[in-house]
Amino acid sequence: QLQLVESGGGLVQPGGSLRLSCAASGFTLDSDALGWFRQAPGKEREGVSCISRRGRITNYADSVKGRFTISRDNAKNTVSLQMNSLKPEDTAVYYCAAERRMFGCINSVDYWGNGTRVTVSP
Question: Under 8 Å CB-to-CB from 117, ≥6 apart: which residues?
């Protein structure tokens, strides 16, 4: 069974940090572009960040540039999102995503994780 499983969400105060991780089971991620999306209450799901298959290309939403860093470890079959200087508007369910893609960042998601909740509140 192909699965992406996120971890690392939780409650954090504004200005704090969290590190999200996503592990794959049932398949290896070294042929996939990977990314993180989020969905805040009452809003549509939006892209946060993505990373190409070999990690040479990374993209970030303007709202998280300079605060979030995406990374991947193909040997461990994981992708992570380091989130610093968190703001209340970062509150959302964060989803890991993968697309079987040789070059570039995610264009159309093949696999989704179930999500991990991040709440930024005093």
Answer: 9, 10, 92, 93, 94
